[in-house]
């Protein structure tokens, strides 16, 4: 499949993924309410923490390291680390009360399965199997939607626990499929294996994943901050719906970002890779702007009719700058990763996280979810400006 075909497939996959995710959110919000959605969002934050820790070895760095380590040689180091990451991530998050302690094993187990799927997806991406990489995400989301329909309507089991069981089933089935697809990886020359492969994966992965972990925290920390504030799980649920809307606006950027990463990592001609990234950046900004304007135009009572509670539209308005700057950041960050400049992503994400925490601490108490959204928008603006400066410095003649 040519590049344009791959882009179309990625966008279509993302659109279908958005459809499945929206269906899941609608079922959760209408049947479990804002409080139930808030608890689910908090559990999912724990899963993201686990997978982010797992990415230090078994993450996106494998795409770059394909140049020097055979893909099959990455399997054992990656899987050993993922087991450790499940415990480390859950323990660290619950120890500082950032994550709900009562869901420790749920977050550890589901985070491990999600981490395996992500790792296998990155190996497929490194092997230029972009369609299968995309289809893994689509399969998991589709199975989760069907599992919830069976649990909520077929079995009439409407609870957060039912969601957790449906999520576990979708992750388990997707993990099995990913293993079957990996069996077809080519067995190339394994010049670096075992402990040496682990060391190399850690040396490169830590710089790449530090930025990803900090970015995840910048995007999602507000869910925990709101849940632990006087606003409570209800405000966290409202914010999570608005943020899911924000992620829906990133349909095109997130579809194009892996392509930008893969193309940049394999393209040695500076002008060619810059031209390709600029094209993807313009496409991403244009598509995000259209979706943002639609979301902002919808009155709050429409959102209330859809999700069964009010207060979503003001949060979306407050997140508008984050939508635009986040779309740009996604493309630029993947370009920088493709040329091995992961430290810039880590640095700008770190600054963004600090800004978020400082402003959220001031604005959540008086303004709730809207204050959290204001903080997120300022953090996204600061981060994007830093990435633009880094991009210019790294790629200037």
Beta-strand segment tally: 0
Multimer state: single chain
The percentage of residues in β strands lies in under 5%
Q: Roughly how much helix do the residues carry, as a percent range?
A: over 70%
Order of helices and strands: HHHHHHHHHHHHHH
C-alpha end-to-end distance: 33 Å
Structural class: mainly alpha
C-alpha Rg, in Å?
20 Å
User: What would you call the shape?
Assistant: globular
The number of helices is 14
Unreliable segments of 5+ consecutive residues: none
Q: Please summarize the sheet with the most strands.
A: none
Mean pLDDT: 91
Keywords:
single chain, 397 residues, mainly alpha, 14 helices
Element layout with pairings:
Layout: H1 3-58, H2 61-65, H3 75-95, H4 104-126, H5 130-154, H6 160-182, H7 194-227, H8 232-249, H9 251-266, H10 270-297, H11 300-307, H12 312-318, H13 320-338, H14 342-395
How would you sum up this structure, described in words?
With 397 residues, the chain is mainly alpha-helical. Helices cover 85% and strands 0% of the residues. It has 14 helices and no strands. It is globular and about 55 Å long. The chain starts with a helix and ends with a helix.
